[in-house]
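hiii so um. not sure if this is the right channel but i have a protein structure encoded as tokens and i wanna go backwards to a sequence. like what aa goes where. can anyone help
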């Protein structure tokens, strides 16, 4: 980000700090699998745990990390006020996608510049 205006650099620092939890959350394959399951259908922690060879408390920790990253929300069941269901909340991934698109544009511009430079030098 050298050569960019200071406001631009601070903007990216804020975004990266905000997205750090999302990157941490999706870094784990178990949490990615949980998100895929919840994207298809909301589920309780107990039902989620049935799909993995780990304890229910371990799944609860994964769910908490996803919840802290705003990738899922937990709501009490309307019919049964005791059961809590997890719902995928994937809007935070849109921010990651936007950030990665910006990084890709940055590097594509660098590669285009390199290609131009190399083609000029090869003609000499």
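sure thing!! here u go:
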């Amino acid at each position: 980000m050298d050569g960019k205006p200071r406001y631009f650099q601070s903007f990216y620092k804020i975004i990266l700090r905000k997205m750090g939890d999302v990157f941490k959350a999706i870094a784990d394959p178990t949490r990615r699998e949980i998100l895929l399951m919840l994207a298809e259908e909301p589920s309780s922690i107990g039902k989620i745990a049935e799909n993995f060879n780990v304890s229910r408390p371990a799944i609860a920790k994964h769910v908490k990390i996803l919840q802290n990253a705003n990738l899922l929300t937990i709501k009490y069941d309307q019919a049964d006020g005791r059961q809590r269901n997890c719902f995928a909340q994937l809007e935070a991934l849109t921010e990651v996608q936007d950030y990665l698109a910006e990084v890709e544009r940055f590097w594509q511009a660098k590669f285009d510049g390199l290609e131009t430079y190399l083609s000029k030098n090869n003609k000499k």
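oh and The chain has a mean pLDDT of 85.
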